[in-house]
Amino acid sequence: MTFKALAIDIDGTITNMDRRLSLKATEKLRELDVPVVLATGNILCYAKATAKLIGVCCNVIAENGGVVTDRFDKKPYISDVITECEQAFDILSREFDMEKLDSVHRRTEIVLRRDFDLERARALLNTTDLDVEIIDTHFAIHIKSKKINKGTGLVRIADMMGLKPSDFVAIGDSVNDMELLALAGYSVAVSNADDFLKDIADHVTRESYGEGTAEVIDYLVSKGMLNTRQ
């Protein structure tokens, strides 16, 4: 089967842990003759800048599905879910000394530095009726709505592009990529991915980070599952 598009995480998938962009992965992405969607837990401007640097146009899922756009000059779709996240932060901040990250730019979730007891925080939130969850992506801790994720973002961007989620190959490395991989037609976990993500993936790379992404793109092209411009 030849797939019509690729959805890929950024941090830990086309970057290393220090967020250095893999030039090998970017070269492979740029060669593809299918649309590439960047699907990230990071903010929209970060994703847009990354897309421009890679040269893969303008399809973006940001803030773990909360912000979606298919054009740089178009007003993005923004989920109306921030209120409960702010309420959750207010509750947690009574018990923990927490530092917000990118708070000026975040529209649908709250992101925190990874320097407090995550399990205690989860236990505290479980005593509330807030429809939120708290996840650790290895780069930051996210307080996010349970209503949205990269999977819901994939459904929305696929509709904008006139495609179905099953038309996509998805590549990721962390807990926030689970729904993305589950909905895609073919799913890939890079070698550095969390074990539970590897368990649901159709393919696990031998190499880690961007090297793993470059490896699997070569594999998919060789099998006729993705087309290149060459």
TrEMBL record:
EC code: 3.1.3.18
Positions that bind substrate: 150
Organism name: Methanolobus halotolerans
Alphabetized NCBIfam families for the sequence: HAD-SF-IIB (TIGR01484), Pglycolate_arch (TIGR01487), PRK01158.1 (NF002245), SPP-subfamily (TIGR01482)
Protein name, per record: Phosphoglycolate phosphatase
Alphabetical UniProt keywords: Carbohydrate metabolism, Hydrolase, Magnesium, Metal-binding
Catalysed reactions, as listed in the record: 2-phosphoglycolate + H2O = glycolate + phosphate
Pfam families noted in UniProt: Hydrolase_3
Necessary cofactors: Mg(2+)
Active site, renumbered: 9 (nucleophile)
Lineage: Archaea, Methanobacteriati, Methanobacteriota, Stenosarchaea group, Methanomicrobia
Similarity section: Belongs to the archaeal SPP-like hydrolase family.
A molecular function GO annotation: magnesium ion binding
Protein residues bound to Mg(2+): 9, 11, 173, 177
GO cellular component: cytosol
Domain of life: Archaea
Entry function: Catalyzes the dephosphorylation of 2-phosphoglycolate.
InterPro entries found in the cross-reference section: HAD-like_sf, HAD-SF_hydro_IIB, HAD_sf, PGPase
